[in-house]
Specification:
Elements: E1 9-14, E2 20-24, H1 34-46, E3 54-58, H2 71-76
Parallel strand pairs: 2-3
Antiparallel strand pairs: 1-2
Length: 79
């Protein structure tokens, strides 16, 4: 199975009491899908039964570039 990784997630921290803190970025600061993407990430992680609270933090450093994508991710997007 190929994992399609677009390189947007930088770090996931799960505490002992099952809280999740996700550090991620978007392709550009003005991404029109900002709310949809962050809400989607939160929704998916909240769907894990053991998870209590989910915090999604957007960062812009380091800046995203296509180099952060896996080959499968690039293939999926036709690059």
């Amino acid at each position: 199975m190929n994992v399609v990784d677009l390189g947007l997630l930088y770090h996931v921290d799960i505490t002992e009491d099952a809280n999740a803190k996700i550090t991620m970025t978007l392709t550009t600061p003005g991404c029109p899908l900002h709310d949809s993407i962050t809400k989607g990430v939160r929704f998916c992680v909240e769907g894990i039964e053991e998870t209590r609270n989910v915090e999604v933090n957007l960062v812009w450093e380091p800046a995203w570039s296509p180099d952060k994508m896996t080959d499968a991710g690039k293939s999926y997007l036709g690059r």
